[in-house]
Design brief:
The structure holds two protein chains of two kinds.
Chain A (H helix, E strand, L loop, with lengths): L4 E3 L2 E4 L5 E6 L6 E7 L6 E7 L2 E5 L6 E5 L5 E5 L8 E8 L10 E2 L3 E5 L1
Parallel strand pairs in A: 2-11
Antiparallel strand pairs in A: 1-3, 3-8, 4-5, 4-9, 5-6, 7-8, 9-10, 9-11
Chain B lengths: L2 E4 L4 E4 L4 E3 L1 E4 L5 E7 L5 E7 L5 E4 L2 E4 L9 E3 L8 E11 L2 E6 L3 E6 L1
Parallel strand pairs in B: 2-12
Antiparallel strand pairs in B: 1-4, 3-9, 5-6, 5-10, 7-8, 8-9, 10-11, 10-12
The chains are: A mainly beta, B mainly beta.
Chain lengths: 115, 114
């Protein structure tokens, strides 16, 4: 069974640029969530996708957007990058929407640095 | 809004010492509670969970009891090992307004010395 994978591992961008991060969910999982983890902080929920539709969004501006594909893989897009967007971006998948009982499986993350 | 507060770290212990990491929460609904662990260089892993009041979650010698009256979910282990050194995150999930919004604490670093 393949776990959650993310690409790229590391990324360096400059202010104002756009970035796309990718996530492959664990086999059989139809729900993907994205988190931003700043250094020394806990993960902050960005949004969640269930069967290709956004289902829940945290306190992030519209320049953070996402997609989920029919194979349940997902992308996180960030436009007009700011210095404060520098963080570890985590993807997590789960086998359904009932996340109060379903475990989330996290990927290793993508480290984004904005200069 | 929802929030999770964890004790500040790092927590430094000797091997075989007793561990407590405090976690309290604020939620509008009836959340499920979780502890996640993040080992150096790795992603978060679920350690244990509890879905309703008075439930006890346990795994790998760690335990935490969902205390609704004190809105707490403290993590305990009777005898820590060097391999338990990691960052521990308390989290809740609450289906507020029909959408799922998970909330994590800031994390508590645990360092265990031989």
């Amino acid at each position: 069974e393949t776990g959650v994978t993310q690409s790229p591992t590391h990324l360096i961008k400059t202010r104002g640029q756009q970035v796309t991060l990718r996530c492959s969910s664990q086999s059989g999982h139809n729900t993907v969530s994205w988190y931003q983890q700043a250094l020394g902080q806990g993960p902050q929920f960005i949004f969640q996708y269930y069967r290709e539709e956004e289902n829940g969004r945290g306190n992030f501006p519209p320049r953070f957007s996402g997609l989920q594909f029919p194979n349940y893989s997902s992308e996180l897009n960030v436009n007009a990058l700011e210095l404060d967007d520098s963080a570890l971006y985590l993807c997590a998948s789960s086998p359904g929407l009932a996340v109060d009982s379903n475990e989330q499986f996290f990927g290793p993350g993508t480290r984004l640095t904005v200069l | 809004g929802n929030s999770v507060t964890q004790m500040e770290g790092p927590v430094t212990l000797s091997e075989e010492a007793f561990l407590t990491i405090n976690c309290t929460y604020t939620a509008t609904g009836y959340p499920s509670l979780f502890w996640y662990v993040q080992y150096p260089g790795e992603g978060l892993q679920l350690l244990l969970k509890a879905t309703k009041a008075d439930d006890k979650g346990s795994n790998k010698g760690f335990e935490a009891t969902y205390r609704k009256e004190t809105t707490s979910f403290h993590l305990e282990k009777g005898s820590v090992q060097v391999s338990d050194s990691a960052v521990y995150f308390c989290a809740l999930s609450d289906r507020g307004g029909g959408s799922y919004i998970p909330t994590f604490g800031r994390g508590t670093s645990l360092i265990v010395h031989p």
